[in-house]
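Figure 3 (text version): structure tokens given as input.
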């Protein structure tokens, strides 16, 4: 099964609160995005946004240039339907982040909660980092969250790579200045704790 087919199956067979990464609101992400971009005119992209409510909360807080990218069209469809008329206030892209073409220097904030840790091949991680370096403006910010050292080794039937702050920042390199890292103990909808690690960087 291809990666895209896998995620289409996940989103077609489970509701948004039946996946392990579900939270009603991504509080840590929202705080970091607002720290990075207090100006509501900033361009924000949520990579692997899926059915997440982050786009709802960003639009509700007045952000006027929000893009949601996901490999699953089914996930995009659910999020757009949930937002109803407000969906037109966001941009929607269906594609694989390691292959999709994004405009150069388009975004002020790049946000990813739980995509990067699925990239188990070095060439896919390198392609991802090239996308970030191209698509985020100099002086822009990058927020990437993965499973931490004590997080699970698999998610949705797929292997993942776990990181601490040093190893995650090391994947991105000197062009990305590490400003902060945050550890979050996320509780799945069925009560299992999962450790997430966020790195908050600025593009030099």
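Below: residues designed for each position.
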């Amino acid at each position: 099964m291809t990666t895209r087919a896998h995620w289409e199956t996940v989103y077609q067979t489970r509701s948004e609160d039946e996946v392990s990464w579900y939270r009603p609101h991504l509080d840590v992400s929202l705080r970091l995005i607002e720290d990075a971009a207090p100006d509501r005119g900033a361009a924000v992209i949520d990579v692997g946004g899926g059915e997440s409510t982050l786009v709802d909360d960003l639009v509700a807080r007045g952000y006027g240039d929000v893009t949601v990218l996901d490999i699953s069209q089914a996930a995009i469809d659910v999020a757009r339907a949930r937002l109803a008329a407000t969906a037109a206030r966001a941009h929607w892209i269906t594609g694989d982040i390691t292959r999709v073409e994004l405009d150069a220097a388009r975004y002020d904030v790049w946000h990813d909660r739980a995509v990067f840790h699925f990239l188990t091949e070095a060439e896919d991680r390198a392609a991802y980092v090239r996308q970030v370096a191209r698509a985020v403006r100099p002086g822009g910010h990058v927020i990437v969250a993965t499973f931490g050292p004590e997080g699970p080794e698999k998610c949705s039937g797929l292997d993942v790579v776990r990181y601490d702050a040093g190893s995650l920042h090391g994947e991105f390199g000197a062009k990305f200045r590490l400003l902060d890292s945050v550890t979050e103990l996320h509780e799945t909808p069925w009560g299992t704790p999962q450790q997430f690690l966020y790195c908050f960087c600025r593009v030099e």
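The helical segments are 3-13, 27-36, 54-60, 73-83, 122-135, 165-172.
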